[in-house]
Structure formats: C-alpha cells, structure tokens
C-alpha cells in the first residue's frame, strides 16, 4: 500500500508537473514571434493619423487592406488578399474564386505546420465577411441554400507568425487568405461602410517612444475606433504587444507558481508517508538490529542495511516514476511534432532535465535523512540500555 501511494505521488510529479513546469519556465519565449509593437484594425480613413503617429514617435507603419471575417464558432479573424499574404510571408499564394487559406497565428512558432487534427473543417469553411452580428447563426445555416453564400473552399490550414498571436486559445485573430478577385470585390464594398474595418496598421516603435505611442493610439482608438456590434464579441480593434505579453507573463507566472506549489506539496506528502512508515516500524527496527548486534554484525554493516531498508520503497517508486516520466515526455514530444505543434526547443529539454534531477536529488536527500535519523535513534536506545 505504501509503495502504491509513493508511486502515485512520484508519478504525478515526474510526468505531468515536470513537463508543464518546464514549458512554463520559458517566460520570454514569445516576443520573437511578435514582429510588431501595435496591431490596429481600423478604417482606410485612419491612414493619415497612423502615418502621423509613426512619424511623431520615430516609428514605422505598414498598411494592409483587410476584411473582418468571422468563422462559424463566432470568432473574428483578419481577412487579407493572396497578394498581401505573399508580400507579408514571401510565399507564393495561388488562389482562385472562393478558395481560402487559414493561417493560425502561433506564439511558439518555429516552422510552418499543417493543421490536421481539427474535428470539423466545416467550422472554418463557413465564414461571414464583415462586422459580425452574433444573432446571425452560421452553424445553423451550414449545408442549406441560405448558407451557400458563406461557404468557401478551404484548401489548406497551417500555423504561422506574421502578425503575432493575440488570442489565448488561438481561435481568434488568425488570418483568412482570399483570392485577389474575391477580396477586391468585397473590400470595395466594405471600405464605404464607416462601421467596418478596412485597413490593418502594423506599427513598430523605438523602445523609448513605445509607452507614449501606445497611450496616444489607445486614446484615439477608444474615441474613434471600430466597435463590435455586440458586447459578447471577445476581439479588440487594437492590440499593444507589450501590454498583451505582460498579461501572458503574469498568467504564466501564476500557473508556474501553482505547479511548483503542487510539486512541493507532493514532495512533502512523500516525506510524511515515509516518515510515518519509519516511525511505525521503529520498534521492529530496534528488535531486529538488537538481534543482529548480538549475532556479531558489524556496526558499519548495520548502518548500511538500515539506510537500504529506509529508502528501498522510495527508490522503487521514484525509479518507476522516472521511467514513466521519460515515456510521458516522449509522448508529449510526439504530440507536438505530429499534432500541429512546433515541437520543443533545447531550452525546454534543459529545464525538464533540471526539474527531474532536482526532484530526484531532493527525494534522495530525504531518504538519507531518514536513514540517519533511524541510526541515531537506535544508538540512543542502546546507550539507554547500557
């Protein structure tokens, strides 16, 4: 029973918690996949203000014609033309008619991965172009005559890092790429509507000017920016990268703290389990080693046996948990490489190895402490007996 309990404790610590903690320790891994300091979804009429803001703060601004696009699960995305995508990515993009591509922004992007593990591609093939009204239900219109105008041919879905991931769950603010002909036709309609977004402004600012530029742009957007038609829509029209990443880091620190707390709790639980076991067996230890002492066993051999007895269950459970931890991280790596993820870098492996080694070293030291305690206790009992 004690062995099973220790196995459960060490298994949970060396599998799930070790992998999750190693991933969370990479707190600054995201910034490299955010090429812009501010991403502003606005109107064509805001072009002059955008240029003035960039010039005033010694920054740059890239202007991109865009459409607001909403997928069937009511998540708003950024729609661009094939030629715009080619300019941003440097990749050839040959789309015709109602063909589309779906580029999912990934904060951990290393290389492009095809997305193949979606349960229902139809959720991404049915999209609404424009400022979305949640009263309009795309899911209900699927496979109906009324839904045909909102159906497109999804030719490929993949991960990317062209503007940055400004969505915690990766379902929002991704990129839908349309053919040039279709995009131009719809964009000419949308640009006339002042309630619709028609231009994407991508800003970069020097570090010394960043805070002031954020402040000015935020104030202007609050007063004049595009508004969602319904308050339940989660997306914003302005994303300031440092502010967004600050929130990400705070969430990561909180999650990391909770994982470390759980790991410390498991170590403490294992400590008490072994402590109760050894204390409850103290009388047995005393009788057994009194007999071995009378039989002539050397004190050095007795100490060796005591240390072995006090740590054998922990050695077995921690060893088995370590093997399962290796298998767990291998399955995690496989999932990352085959499930649309970007794999893991060398930093992850360093942190994972350090966590595993540190945990096992602490467990080893705890067992040495118990061995030392039992030996001291037995010596004291012998001295009392004369």
UniProtKB/TrEMBL annotation:
Q: Does the entry feature the keyword Transmembrane helix, yes or no? A: yes
Give the transmembrane ranges: 260-279, 312-334, 354-375
Top-level taxon:
Bacteria
Query: What are the UniProt keywords, alphabetically?
Result: Membrane, Transmembrane, Transmembrane helix
**What InterPro entries does the annotation carry?**
ABC-4_Integral_Memb_Prot (IPR052536)
Its recorded name reads ABC transporter permease
Record organism:
Drancourtella massiliensis
The record lists the lineage as: Bacteria, Bacillati, Bacillota, Clostridia, Eubacteriales
């Amino acid at each position: 029973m004690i062995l099973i309990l220790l196995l459960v404790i060490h298994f949970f610590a060396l599998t799930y918690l070790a992998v999750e903690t190693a991933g969370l320790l990479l707190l600054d891994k995201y910034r490299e996949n955010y090429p812009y300091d501010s991403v502003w979804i606005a109107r064509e009429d805001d072009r002059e203000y955008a240029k003035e803001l960039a010039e005033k703060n010694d920054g740059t601004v890239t202007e991109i014609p865009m459409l607001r696009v909403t997928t069937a699960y009511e998540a708003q995305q950024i729609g661009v033309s094939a030629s715009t995508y080619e300019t941003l990515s440097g990749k050839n993009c040959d789309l015709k008619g109602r063909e589309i591509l779906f580029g999912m922004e990934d904060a951990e992007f290393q290389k492009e991965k095809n997305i193949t593990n979606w349960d229902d591609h139809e959720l991404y093939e049915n999209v609404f172009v424009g400022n979305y009204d949640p009263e309009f239900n795309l899911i209900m219109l699927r496979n109906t005559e009324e839904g045909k105008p909102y159906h497109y041919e999804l030719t490929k879905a993949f991960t990317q890092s062209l503007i940055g991931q400004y969505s915690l769950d990766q379902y929002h603010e991704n990129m839908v790429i349309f053919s040039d002909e279709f995009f131009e036709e719809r964009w000419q309609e949308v640009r006339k509507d002042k309630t619709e977004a028609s231009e994407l402004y991508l800003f970069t600012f020097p570090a010394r000017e960043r805070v002031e530029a954020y402040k000015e742009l935020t104030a202007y957007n609050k007063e004049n920016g595009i508004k969602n038609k319904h308050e339940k829509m989660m997306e914003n029209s302005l994303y300031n990268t440092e502010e967004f990443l600050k929130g990400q880091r705070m969430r990561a620190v909180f999650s990391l703290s909770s994982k470390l707390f759980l790991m410390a709790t498991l170590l403490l639980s294992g400590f008490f389990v072994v402590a109760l076991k050894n204390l409850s067996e103290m009388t047995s230890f005393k009788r057994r080693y009194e007999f071995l002492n009378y039989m002539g066993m050397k004190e050095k051999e007795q100490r060796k046996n005591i240390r072995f007895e006090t740590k054998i269950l922990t050695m077995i459970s921690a060893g088995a948990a370590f093997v399962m931890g290796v298998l767990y991280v291998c399955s995690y790596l496989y999932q990352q490489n085959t499930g649309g993820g970007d794999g893991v870098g060398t930093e992850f492996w360093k942190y994972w190895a350090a966590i595993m080694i540190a945990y096992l070293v602490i467990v080893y030291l705890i067992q040495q402490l118990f061995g030392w305690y039992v030996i001291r206790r037995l010596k004291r009992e012998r001295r009392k007996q004369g």
